[in-house]
Amino acid sequence: MSHNDLLNITCANITDASQKMTDLLRSRKPDYSLPQPLYNDPALFRIDMEEIFEKEWLFVGMSSEIPKKGDYFTIEIGQNPVLVVRDAEGNINAFHNTCRHRGSRLCAAQRGKVANLVCPYHQWTYDLKGNLLFAGTEMGQEFALKDHGLQKAHCKSAGGFIFVCLAKTAPDSDMDAFLATLDEYMAPYDVENTKLAAESQMYEKANWKLVIENNRECYHCAASHPELLNSLLEWDDTEDPRAPQSFLDYYQSQAAAWDEQGVPHRHQSFGLRNRIVRMPLKEGAKVMTIDGGEGCSKLMGSFTSYFQGSMRILHLPNSWNHMQSDHFIVFRVLPISAQETMVTTKWFVHKDAVEGVDYDPERLRRVWDATNDQDRVLGEENQRGINSVGYQPGPYSKTYEFGVINFIDWYSETLLKNLAP
Asked: By residue range, what is the domain housing residue 137?
């Protein structure tokens, strides 16, 4: 079989998978879970990666993780290694983490600090803006350094959050409006004066969409998350159709206090994809620790009170976050395969907080370490059941699972848009 024959087969397979994906999405029953192949078919997972994770804006990390010139971190988006680095002017840049010589990864460490970016294979050297500085005389006199800079990825940051898009042309969306609001709502936290206090990497044997679906509802919380419910009120936001009047009254009393302090809190949505809302915790709870007591003795930013609730930030397809008075927690979801996902959780505190004096990392982590592991088990059991020949899509509750419906609608609409000829 010739190379062209193999190429034709590969192209035909991709076309067939795209058509299958399109047909399944167009024929899916509204307000029901997805057809089985969308949760476990490797060919359709490839479409997810190409049309969602290689074309849409993704949350990758926080600006305070790379506070100084030359600080960097790396991530893997499917088979795409990405490097995020701060340059000499303080700007944050994202590059494809692949040398322009023969493609080797430039930086293998999860995070680090460099003066320049030097490929370990043949020592090609780039500055922090991606310009090629050195390739050796071996390349000949005709070789032009300026033509071989690193390939950039689109990169935007707001409120300390860093987003990357791998598409050649970043999609038009309401992203800029979301980022402007994110800047406003995150201002009290002064993220540039925070630091990473703890981090976990959790491998989950479940499709990435099941991870997000699980997060988008608290229907399962009472039976599964005792640690979380010590401090968390299960209502999703102020527009939750399940919320009783007693909760709405409690929210209004908290909102009045936040208004007095100039702390943003009102629900802000940007399509189905992005949402910000500040929600009160259980009465008497300061932050999301096992007993609701403080997690760090130093408040963040401009806060003068612990009772700031949890500001919840959603960014589809891969992040949810809880911002509190003395620490905040960010979550990042990255698919590995059709039935494997990596969930990264990071805890941040004031940069002057001293470990063992002002905060205990284990205390910060306890609630969400337990909750993440409980969700891992739920997701993996969900995946096992979906893999059965007996699986059929089931109905979502329009009250308890409206957030899941919103996610599945966003996912379906985005894929159909990106797959359209």
From this structure: 61-165
